[in-house]
């Protein structure tokens, strides 16, 4: 979990620094134009490129089996990421793909995820706010309901945006993860059996070869391996949102 937060921190920091020293906008104004959107997406692309080595190191930590994992420190992700850039650190096999060949799939996934989630988030939020406005005109709402209507639509919109973008881009994410892990001597748990470990012995030459190989050897369902974890993740997310709504409503009613 620590490496995941580090990647988020590196991403936010890189985006802030790049936007500070370049004319690339960090936010899109209401009076947007195609040039502004293009510059904003360029900023996102550069940010994903800077964070890519640390994302790769964090991914390896995430999937590595607990059986052979050492007790690494919280900054191990940074050390491994820098080592990946300058070619030092843990020795890797010859099947390790160079970072240059990982730039396109990493940036593509990041930018598409950002675009899809942003569009869906704004669309769902617009629908919810119109629905809330119509209900306010139709009948008088309580202070409790007004407070919920002010904050809860934002949470629902973010949930829907994250869910849709993760589901739509899951096949691309599968390809991306396999490319990043290849050649890193990573040992993963056999989640089908639950009692042994498996080495990563893939030999993809790039993104196109990975897609063709998965389609030929595993079929279309090969792109959706591990999708059950996403279902569990968002089921729990929805449950947390519902519980939060109930608790928030109860606290507001008690305070009124």
TrEMBL record:
The Gene Ontology biological process terms listed for this entry are:
axon development; mitochondrial membrane fission
User: Could you tell me which residues the Solcar repeats occupy?
Assistant: 149-251
The residue stretches assigned to a coiled coil in this entry are none
Q: Which residues cross the membrane?
A: none
Q: State if Cell cycle is listed as a keyword.
A: no
The principal localisation class reads mitochondrion
* Keywords of the record: Membrane, Mitochondrion, Mitochondrion outer membrane, Repeat, Transmembrane, Transmembrane helix, Transport
Q: Which family does it belong to?
A: Belongs to the mitochondrial carrier (TC 2.A.29) family.
Under the subunit heading, UniProt states:
Associates with the mitochondrial contact site and cristae organizing system (MICOS) complex. May associate with the endoplasmic reticulum membrane protein complex (EMC).
Function comment: Transmembrane protein of the mitochondrial outer membrane that controls mitochondrial organization. May regulate the assembly of the MICOS (mitochondrial contact site and cristae organizing system) complex which is essential to the biogenesis and dynamics of mitochondrial cristae, the inwards folds of the inner mitochondrial membrane. Through its interaction with the EMC (endoplasmic reticulum membrane protein complex), could regulate mitochondrial lipid homeostasis and thereby mitochondrial fission.
The entry's protein name is Mitochondrial outer membrane protein SLC25A46
Q: Which organism is it from?
A: Canis lupus dingo (dingo)
């Amino acid at each position: 979990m620590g490496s995941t937060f580090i990647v988020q921190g590196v991403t936010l920091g890189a985006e802030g620094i790049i936007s500070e020293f370049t004319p690339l906008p960090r936010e899109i104004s209401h009076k947007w134009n195609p040039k502004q959107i293009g510059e904003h997406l360029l900023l996102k692309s550069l940010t994903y490129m800077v964070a890519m080595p640390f994302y790769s190191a964090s991914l390896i930590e995430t999937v590595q089996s607990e059986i052979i994992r050492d007790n690494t420190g919280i900054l191990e992700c940074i050390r491994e990421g820098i080592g990946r850039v300058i070619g030092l650190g843990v020795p890797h096999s010859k099947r390790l793909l160079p970072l240059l060949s990982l730039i396109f799939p990493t940036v593509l996934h990041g930018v598409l995820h950002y675009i899809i989630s942003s569009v869906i988030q704004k669309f769902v939020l617009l629908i919810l706010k119109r629905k809330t406005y119509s209900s306010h005109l139709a009948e008088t709402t309580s202070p409790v309901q007004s407070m919920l209507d002010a904050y809860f639509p934002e949470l629902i919109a973010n949930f829907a945006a994250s869910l849709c973008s993760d589901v739509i881009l899951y096949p691309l994410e599968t390809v991306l993860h396999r490319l990043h892990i290849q050649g890193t001597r990573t040992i993963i748990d056999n989640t089908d059996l639950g009692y042994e470990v498996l080495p990563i012995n893939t030999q993809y030459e790039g993104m196109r070869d990975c897609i063709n190989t998965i389609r030929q050897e595993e079929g279309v369902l090969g792109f959706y391996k591990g999708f059950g974890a996403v279902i569990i993740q968002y089921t729990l997310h929805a449950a947390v949102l519902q519980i939060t709504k109930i608790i928030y409503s109860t606290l507001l009613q008690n305070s009124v």
